[in-house]
Amino acid sequence: xxxxxxxxxxxxxxxxxxxxxxxxxxxxxxxxxxxxxxxxxxxxxxxxxxxxxxxxxxxxxxxxxxxxxxxxxxxxxxxxxx
Length: 82
Fold this sequence. Notes:
Blueprint: E1 4-10, E2 16-23, E3 26-39, E4 42-49, E5 54-60, E6 65-72
Antiparallel strand pairs: 1-2, 2-3, 3-4, 4-5, 5-6
């Protein structure tokens, strides 16, 4: 299992935002905090990282533990044959 470590900072509305995260041996700087949603005992964060990929990270409040829920690379641009 690959370890996930997340560094947050307080956002303008007082809620945590993700600054960077380390997934295995790679550290990714967050370039955009896109969305957050909450439930009973958990939070999800949708972020864009400096590698251009989108990530959804899950935070379990009771366990104080982070998981990677989704990873999506940017769409590939097809070059015209003309």
